[in-house]
Amino acid sequence: MRSTFVHTSGRTRVRVALALGLGALGLAVASPVAAVPADTTIGQNIYLADYDSFSAPWFDASTQTWSTIALPNYTNAVVVSPDAKTLYYNSSDAQAVYKVDATTHVVLATIPLGSNYAYIGGPMIALDPDGTHLYTAGVNGVVTRIETATGAVLGSVDVGGQLGGVATSQDGSKIWVAGYADNNIVELNAATMTITRTTPVSLDPQALQVSPDDSTLYIGHAVVPTGTAAVLTVLNTSDATKLWSISRDDYGATFGPSNISLSTDGKTLYGMDRGMGYVTIDTTTHNFTRAVLPQTTGTTVFPNLALTAGNSTAILTGGTPSSPGAVLSNMLNFLDTANGTLDTPEQQGVMPAAVSFAPDQAPVAAFTSTPANTGSATAFDASTSTASMCPVGTYDWDFGDGTTATVNTATTTHVYNTAGTYTVELTLTTTCGTSTTKIFTGQALMRNGGPSAITSNPVTVADAIPPTPTVSATPTPTPTPSPTETPSATPTPTPSPTASVTASPTASATAVPPTTPTPTPTASPTETVSPVPSPSKTGQPSSSAGSEIAIPGKLKNTSAGLGAVGVGIAGLGLSAIGFLILAARRRQQH
User: Fold this and answer.
1) How confident is the model at residue 24 (pLDDT cuts 50, 70, 90)?
2) Torsion of CA 302, 308, 309, 312, to 10 degrees
3) Residue 289: phi, psi to the nearest 5?
4) Strands 313-317 and 331-336, bridge-based pairing
5) Rounded CA gap, 107 and 92, in Å?
6) Contact (CB, 8 A) for 530 and 483
7) What is the pLDDT of residues 361-371, one digit of tens each?
8) Among candidate residues 368, 496, 390, the one with its CA nearest the CA of residue 434
């Protein structure tokens, strides 16, 4: 049976369809360009290798439509570089690898492999995680190492027998090859291309996957003729001991999953077998479910599948659009992994031999902030962040004060309670799950995460400024002086009435002419004149503590001088009276 699926010489390809007596190959034509079913949105570009056409179908995620890439020959395997900019197609007919620009679709280089052309039934091509080296496994048992930058063949080794799949470790230091003919797994040192271990396994090992933590190697077996043989074998990568397996009796089919794809968390394995069956396996419990594609009744030698970076959709190749029992197939089936249902299938290419997704790329984080004072909301805006494939799904904020938040919108706010400068960090994750971590499962990256998904900026928050109290300016009132509070002015003495002089008994009384009164200054209209006390009998003015004279404001600073003048005038008045009395007495004596 195995001889049906191999090449009989290094130069001549024996078509499987011809070996099975199917002449329909010459009638096969490429299907028209179509979109992915409306209920299946894919965020990553998809590339198919076509074993019966020089046109390789590809799906443009930006327009959600299919187109084709013109190649020099048939292809049977394809992988995409980590940065999604370069495609590598393995061609058994050309005995070469085509290096193709993923944007212009120009063939950049044709890398010859000599007689080392690939077996048609498995993913016989793999990139290491950083994309610097490409490995091919040939039907003649030769494994080749190629430097992707230059296209130079750095080394090769003949491990014997027909080979199946090839895979590399997470650090790129180890290579595993499925010995399809010899029923073993060969481990190689990648740098020296020397064999380090050979491990016997069950029949016809072909598909290989490596867990994201690099601890486990999954092996799918293509043909299982006995009931106790394994359809899936799981090895420990450190010592090649068997961890667990699933037998044909449990699996329920004579074909095992000859192509497998592992979820990014390593918890679910998806497989496709030649009986048009697809399987979902829980890698923790080892439980699984298998079903057969509903639109088929035949078998295929090209059971292939690939899983999106977000694990939401698996694309399965297979189906028989021609006639029952035919192996010619160009049907694509979209498996919704969340509920296990198949979306509407469609036809692409002529004979798809492999499926590969472009790795989802790390988003580029960026944000601005509008600081507010403590107690108010500081605003953050990450709308300038970008994503090249799957859009940004979540924004994880670390506000620097011990508070974090995860939102699905580009803007958010946060209230700081203490003033200071905070380092705010933003981490982005796309809807396909890509952030800072790279996810690799053996043949090519699924998520090309990187440091661009995270960024940080300082944000300075000031203390809240307390409100300034509003003070009403009340004018200072000008006090109205009261009679008892008006600053006193020196009073102007009021002349006493004409004094009556009592003559001595010895002298005759002579009338004293009345004294001309000293005129009292007329008070200005603005001043209030308090009565001035009459002089006492001793001729001295009596003291009155509360008596004041209100004077205009402009005269207040001269009040002290006026008081002194008043005292002087009073004194002069008394002296004059005394002088007149004395003069009168003297005249009487004469």
Assistant:
1) very low
2) -140
3) -130, 140
4) antiparallel
5) 17
6) yes
7) 999 999 999 99
8) 390
Q: Which residue has the tokens 């005394």?
A: 578
Better-predicted residue by pLDDT, 36 or 466: 466
The arrangement of strands across the sheet holding 166-168 comes to 166-168, 174-179, 184-189, 194-200
Classify residue 541 by its DSSP letter.
B
CB 113, CB 97: distance < 8 Å = yes
The SS3 assignment for 239 reads coil
Write out pLDDT tens, residues 206-259: 999 999 999 999 999 999 988 899 999 999 999 999 999 999 999 999 999 999
Q: For residue 501, with 0-12 CB atoms within 10 Å meaning exposed, 13-18 middle and 19 or more buried, which class applies?
A: middle
Six token digits for residue 371: 């600081």
* CA 338 – CA 377 distance, rounded (Å): 39
Contact of 406 with 495, CB cutoff 8 Å: no
Give residue 563's identity as a one-letter amino acid code: G
Instruction: Give the Cα separation of 40 and 447 in Å (integer).
Output: 20
Residue 295: its pLDDT value, please? Answer: 67
Alpha carbon 62 to chain centroid, angstroms? 22
Cα(378)–Cα(490) distance, integer angstroms: 73
